[in-house]
Amino acid sequence: MKIALMDSGIGLLPAAAAVRRLRPDADLLLSNDPDGMPWGPRTPEDLTARALAVALAAAEHRPAALIVACNTATVHALPAIRAALEPDIPVIGTVPAIKPAAAAGGKVAIWATPATTGSAYQRGLIRDFAGGAEVTEVPCPGLADAVEHADPEAVDRAVAAAAALTPGDVRTVVLGCTHYELVEDRILAALEARGRAGLPPLVFFGSADAVAAQALRRVGAEPAPDADPTGTLSVLLSGRPGPIPATALGYAEGRLLGAAAPAH
């Protein structure tokens, strides 16, 4: 069983690692776009063209399913990717986990890119799924780029700025960009440093585990975390076979995946 994942950069690592944990025997294909990144500042039409090219490159390797492991690409390009690949290859998009985060009520913060924060797309998700929760949208300028380049100082600056915009009594944080899940520990430390005496522990909601589980469901496979770790890893860089990006190895998820990567 081969599962493909796509993103402009290393934001696909959390979902890929989640698939690896659920099925150590699955072959993984990571399709990145170093020639076209970042996708966020592009027009919707340009972004869709880049994302579709990355998806089609992955499809040539005949995966059982394709995970669009990027919130921005899901917003703009998912219909085009599905039109091109389904029903032959199931396509799984990535949306912020607003519904499960809001299920317990209380105060919820959604950390997302500036382009997504306040967008009609995110406001629609809040309207449809937030229920009675009180939601604060928190823009995180520069955070995805800092994570992409594995720049810890830049990550800490961007996280600190976003933490300052997050109400102190928030109990739940939705990570609305796949890159953010790679630095969840830094986000937690920044928020807890502001003092939360008397408040319950913060709860984070990412999307990696949910999309990994959905990908298995779409191909009719059950989780088998104890399976033999025979799964391979291959990487496409704007359609060209290549190594896992060096910056990926700066994160635990990248190191987990890199152990199965061929030498280049």
UniProtKB/TrEMBL annotation:
One Pfam family of this chain: Asp_Glu_race
Keywords of this entry: Isomerase
PROSITE patterns, alphabetized: ASP_GLU_RACEMASE_1
Domain of life: Bacteria
Protein name: Aspartate/glutamate racemase family protein
Organism: Streptomyces zaomyceticus
Phylogenetic placement of the source organism: Bacteria, Bacillati, Actinomycetota, Actinomycetes, Kitasatosporales
